[in-house]
Every structure is written in C-alpha cells, then in structure tokens.
Design goal:
9-stranded antiparallel sheet; Beta-galactosidase, Chain A, domain 5; Glutathione S-transferase Yfyf (Class Pi), Chain A, domain 2; alpha+beta
C-alpha cells in the first residue's frame, strides 16, 4: 500500500514579521507534505489558496498504457508523487488533489549537473537519466513552499507560487556543466499520443514562451506559458522524440537542434546550459495562462515582477493565514493538526482559471472576459456537492458564488446546454454520474447566498435535468428508473437523479415556480422504483420491470452500483430519510440494519476489484473512503437512537483521519473527505445539501469560532468534551434549546453561541 505523507508536520520557519502570533499558531498545523492520501492521489507541493499553479515534485514516469492495456500501477500516480519512491524526476506546475483519475502534470523542470542527459532514466538506476535520488530527511513543506535536496546533482531545490506563477529557486554547486531540463513530454496519466502538439519560442537568452495541447481526461486542453530565467543561459537545445512523419516541410534549411529559437513537435525536451559558482542560485518563473503566451507574460508581470523568492513565499503564506483564520479552534494537538490540514485541502480546489486581466478559455474553445466574477475550474462535483461546496457556501460565500457563475458560464457555452458534471480547463470529461452541479446551485439559492441569481440558476438546472440523451436520463424520465440492461450503474444513477431532482424542486419552491416544483418533486420519488421490499435493499431493475436475478448486496463491483455496494447505496435517500426508514420497516428494523453496516466484516473479495476502495477506508461494511456513505452515520438522528450518530461520528473521526503518513482513509477527492472532517469536528453536517438544515453530531473540538462574510461570528462550545464524553446531553443556540437534532443555516450564519453539553 503506498504511503501517505499527507499529515506529517514540519515546523514552520521564516515567518514574516507581519504574521501574528495567532497566525503562526494556525500555520504550524498545516503542511503540504502531509497532503497525500493512502493512495498517493494528493501532492506535497506549493500552492496558494485555489491557485491555478500547483507546483509539486514528480517521483516516477509510469505510463497509462502497458502492452496495449491499462497499467494498474498508474493509479498510484494520480498526483505524480508517491511517498515510497526514492527518486524525483522533476517539478511540474499543475495537479489534481486527491482524485481517483487524473491528467495534468504540465511543464516539468529539472535542474542537473554533469553530463547532459535528455532521458529521465529509471527509478532503480537514476544515474542513467536526469532524475535524482532524494531523502525525506531533506524534504520540507509548508503552505506555499517546498524544498528538497537533489542528491545526484547536489542541488537544493525550492519552490513557491502565486495564483498563476510557479517560482523555482535552485542552489547549484560549482559547475561548468549545469543544466535546466524542460520536459514537455511528461504528463500525469501519460501515454504515447497524449501530447497533441507543443510549441516553444526562445525569445531571448532568458525568456521562453509557448504552449502545449494534450488529449487526456480533458481532450482539448491547452496550456500557454512563459518561462523566465534569472540568469542568461549559455546555450540551449532540444530533442524531438516524436514519431517520424512523412511530411516534414523545409525546416532542413536550418540546424534546429542547437540554439535555434523556434521549436515545435509532439514529444519535445529542451535543455538550457549554464556555468555556476558554488552556492549560486538560478531562479525560474513559470507563468501559466488559459488564453495566450502574451497573457502568461502579463500574469508574470502582474504577480511576480521581480526575483524576490522569500517575499513571494511569505505573501502566499499570509494568504493561507487569512483563509485558515476563517475558523479558530481550540482542541487537542491531533485534532488541531487534522482540522487545519483539512482546511488546507478544502481550499485547494476548485482552481482559478482566469488570467489577471479577467480573460479565460471557454468550454466552446472561445476566449472570454469575465464580468464581475472570478472564473474557476476543477469541478469534481460527484464528490464535492456533498460537503465541500456547502462548506464553501458557509465560509467562502462570495467565492462559492463565483464558482457557481463559472458553472453557469459552462452551461452557456455547452453545446448540450448542460451544467458541468466533472470539468477542468475548458473541458467536460463526463466522469461519474448524476448532475450534481444542480445540488450546488440549489444549496446556494435556498440558503440565500446574496450573490446568486436564482432565476438564472433554476433555468440552467431544469434544462440540464431534462437532457434526455444524457446517461440513461431518458429512461429515467419515462420509466421512473434507469434499467440496468439499458444503462449501467442504474441504481446509483436512479438514486442520485432523484436527489438532484429534489434539489431542483426546493429551488423552484423558493422562487415561487409551483409547476417546476411539482414536476421535480414527483421525479424525486423515483428512488421507490429501485427498492426491493422482499430483501430490504435497493436492487437493479430491468427494462421489463423485473429485478435483476443474479445479485450480491455486498459486492462493490456489482452491476447497478458505482464505487459502493447495495448495502451502502440502499441508505442513499438524503432528501427523504424519514420515508426511507419507513420504507425499510420503521425504526425497530432500521436501527439494527444500520448497526450491522458498521459491525459486519466485509471480506476482501467484495472490494478487491474496485480501485477506489481499500481496507483502510472501511469500518465493517461502511465505506468512508468513498463518498456515497458520507451522510450515513447521521441517519440515526431520524430514529430513537441519536446517540449512535454521536458515537459513530466520533469513531470515524478517530479511525479515518490521522496526522501521520497515510493519514487519510481514501482519496481526498478535491476536498470532500476533508470537508466531512471539518463539519463533523465542529458538530454538524449537511446530510442533504439543498436543504437549509444541518444534522447535529458530536463535536471533536473544545471551542471554535467561525467568521462569516456577513460580519457575524458563531462561537461553538463543547462543554466537558473528551474522548470519554462523546454523547450530547443537550444543545443550545443563543440560549434556545435544540430538540430535533437539527440546526438551520440561519441559526449558524446569524451568529451567537452554539453550546453542546457533553456527557
């Protein structure tokens, strides 16, 4: 099992004198070096909150394809970094945080000394290429800072960022053969034909511009860049590893492989050569743009006009301090570390996708200028609608509204007229199921986010939900369910469509559209059609109306379900828990059923074929490492045993999150796993986004203060809270006792004091 350095802390140093003592106290609990999960799907590099640039080391060059088939080892490299690896290939500027599929890894830079080598070499023989051995003992990570010693080349590598610029600082030994390798072939989830085209121009002896277009998860993704060196290079050259083509034009008039300023091809690596003195630093700035090289240059000028590495680093750390201070907590050391690392994860994605002048590339591959909002990308909505976006709506209200406006811009540009499903870099990749942008928009509308146009949001949601050709939706609309023999993952799709439809109904009700409310409220009842009362579980249904005969409720690779099994998905009716409990036999039958989810032992054979599920993310048969069950522990609140919600939540907090290597139980999935921790540690959770209600649990903090953009604060107190006191005797909000295990959004954002009386 790959290790996770996700929560291993390294002491913060080099604070600006403008950083307060409180800021220091918070910043020390967060380390990007602690950012990888058990599967290695997050990375330990430098970034600012929601930054376009996420600069991180790459530790191997696995290919997505092996002998004409999918290479299973590539799954460990969703973020390019594995803690168990012993070599670094270089440093790239774009990454996904905690996803179970991948792309990106753009513009790899690697400093070297000695003989020029234009191949990365191998992990077991790094001296055969430009990669280098490294040790975790020299690896340091802080918010917006990463450092490591490249042992084979005796070079200290440091990096920091702004929103759109990666800033490298390399300290060299004395050498007449120092090099900077620029590898435009490398990519995450790479394969031979992923690079569609690469173009570079050497503008002068210290500036390179260009672009790369790739065909991966995003099939028409183009990254424009500008690279500036602090020291002029003596010579430069390139190697074109592209397959030989019949037509090659008339470029043979030039000797193009050395000191030739215009380079194009599919598989390009470049080198820039220097002489260095002992401990001489060469700094590199890499600015990105979704639109043009001119805009990349403008982004560099706007964000890092000079060469002061330390000032850039400190400015980014101050930005992290500002975000971390949205919530102040008092808790034991481990909870402090888990909590603020979770906040760090939650504020990485979605990412800015807009130049400093407001321009961005649209889904239709046209260029746009924004009007009053920041454009974002990296929408992993099947994951993040559950807790991340509700969390951002709570403490990043304006930013979440900008993300929604970005989704609406996606809808406007879509030839399908659909909101995003899983989008990145002006591409829709259609990953996962449902149309969960609907949930994000509805949650903001019903909770009165002041920056949202409800009518515009409702139109986009309704049009998306009526798109008959999308993923079995026509069957769902006509038959009330998705038939398994016509469209796979049918039960999961039916249940998630029904929830999304309920969200549309709530938005329509809020806006006074009774016709739309009734249409989608009726559709939201479709979960009934895939419930088999004879066995008490959701079950795949065929187009002739019969239930699928061969069926195993424990198998996570079972037809009808995605990233979960029937036992977990049968509890997925977040918009109607009372009716679900009644349907499943009422309180007396439901509570033992829910107990058994946590108590039975799920044999390995039931999840060994499912990449996203590992033993580490499972408690009994409860799969916390995947999102469909994230609300389940709170369902006891709708029974006569709410104390079991309190017990389960505290157990999950303790067992699934640790400030150690391998500290997360599964993919962080762009912040969803971390958002679950934040909410649950504070004592409440959005079981059903699109509702104004949060379900109460058992806080793991002693005190917390939430600072809202409306100027109000909520002070949370957990009296007598400890590992031995996880049950809640009573809860009060501003002196009023809460008796239904529910707190409203207005209660929270209205400010005041929320008190849990623990026993």
């Amino acid at each position: 099992m790959p290790y996770n350095i996700g929560k291993l802390l390294v002491l913060v140093c080099l604070f600006s004198t403008h950083v307060s003592a409180q800021d220091k106290a918070l910043l020390q609990y967060v380390k990007p070096l602690t950012g990888t999960d058990r599967m290695g799907h997050t990375y330990p590099g430098a970034t600012v909150p929601f930054g376009m640039v996420q600069l991180s080391p790459e530790t191997d060059t696995q290919s997505y394809e092996l002998n004409g088939k999918y290479n299973k080892d590539i799954y460990k490299y969703c973020a390019g970094y594995q803690y168990g690896d012993q070599t670094i290939v270089g440093f790239t500027h774009t990454h996904f945080s905690g996803t179970g599929h991948s792309d990106l890894g753009d513009i790899l830079i690697m400093p070297t000394t000695g003989k020029l080598q234009m191949h990365p070499g191998t992990a077991d023989a790094p001296e055969t290429g430009f990669r280098s051995r490294f040790s975790h003992s020299t690896e340091v990570a802080e918010p917006n800072y990463y450092k490591v010693q490249l042992e084979d080349h005796n070079i200290k590598a440091e990096m920091t960022t702004t929103t759109r610029v990666g800033f490298h600082q390399y300290t060299f030994p004395k050498s007449d053969s120092a090099h900077i390798i620029l590898d435009m072939m490398y990519g995450i989830y790479n394969y031979a034909d992923k690079n569609v085209w690469t173009f570079l121009r050497v503008e002068n002896d210290s500036l390179v511009t260009g672009y790369r277009q790739t065909n991966g998860w995003g099939r028409t993704r183009t990254v424009y860049f500008a690279i500036a060196f602090s020291k002029p290079f003596k010579h430069y050259g390139y190697q074109d590893n592209s397959p030989k083509e019949v037509y090659r034009g008339f470029w043979r008039k030039f000797k193009t492989d050395e000191d030739f300023p215009e380079i194009a091809g599919k598989q390009i690596r470049m080198h820039f050569d220097f002489s260095t003195q002992q401990d001489e630093q060469i700094k590199i700035k890499v600015a990105l743009s979704p639109v043009s090289t001119a805009n990349a240059m403008a982004n560099m000028k706007a964000e890092v006009p000079g060469w002061d590495f330390t000032t850039t680093k400190r400015a980014g750390q101050l930005r992290w301090n500002k975000e971390l201070n949205k919530i102040d907590i008092n808790a034991d050391e481990e909870t402090m570390q888990n909590f603020y690392t979770a906040m760090y994860h939650a504020f990485i994605n979605p990412t800015v996708y807009m130049d400093a002048d407001g321009s961005f590339r649209g889904l239709d591959q046209q260029d746009y200028g924004t009007s009053g909002f920041t454009n974002y990308t990296t929408f992993s909505l099947w994951d993040t609608y559950r807790a991340l976006h509700p969390f951002l709506n709570l403490v990043q209200t304006k930013r979440n509204a900008d993300m929604i406006q970005s989704m609406e811009a996606h809808y406007d540009q879509s030839v399908h007229k659909m909101l995003p499903v899983w989008s990145n870099s002006a591409n829709e990749n259609w990953c996962m199921i449902g149309y969960h942008a609907v949930s994000v928009l509805a949650d903001a509308v019903v909770k009165d986010n002041p920056y949202i146009d409800g009518k515009r949001a409702l139109e986009a949601c309704v049009t998306t939900a009526r798109h008959r050709s999308y993923d079995g939706l026509g069957y769902y609309m006509d038959m009330g369910y998705v038939p398994e023999d016509k469209n796979g993952s049918s039960v999961s799709k039916t249940l998630e469509y029904a929830y999304d439809d309920w969200c549309i109904a709530q938005m329509a009700k809020k806006l006074g559209r009774k016709d739309i409310y009734q249409e989608f409220f009726n559709r939201a009842q479709n979960y009934h059609h895939v419930y088999d009362s004879s066995i008490g579980f959701m079950r795949p249904r065929m187009s002739d109306g019969t239930f699928k005969k061969q069926f195993d409720i424990l198998n996570t690779d079972e037809a009808g379900f995605i990233e979960g099994n029937a036992w977990n998905y049968s509890l997925y009716v977040p918009h109607a828990p009372e009716e679900m409990i009644r349907m499943m036999g009422g309180n007396k039958r439901f509570v033992p059923h829910l107990d058994s989810l946590f108590n039975i032992e799920l044999p390995d054979k039931y999840f060994e074929a499912t990449e996203d599920i590992t033993r580490d993310g499972i408690i009994g048969n409860y799969v916390h490492g995947n999102e469909p069950s994230h609300h389940v522990a709170y369902l006891y609140n709708w029974t006569d045993h709410p104390e079991k919600t309190q017990e389960r939540v505290r157990m999950i907090l303790k067992r699934m999150y640790h400030p150690t290597p391998a500290g997360l139980s599964g993919n962080d999935d762009c912040g969803q796993m971390s958002a679950w921790y934040i909410f649950s540690a504070l004592g409440f959770y959005p079981v059903c986004p699109g509702s104004v209600n949060y379900s109460l649990g058992s806080p793991a903090i002693k005190e917390a203060t939430l600072h809202f953009e409306n100027g109000k604060t909520l002070h949370i107190v957990a009296r007598n809270q400890s590992d031995k006191h996880v049950h809640v005797k009573k809860v009060t909000i501003n002196g009023r006792e809460i008796t239904n295990h529910t707190i409203t959004h207005e209660d929270i954002t209205g400010g005041g004091e929320l008190v849990f009386w623990m026993k």
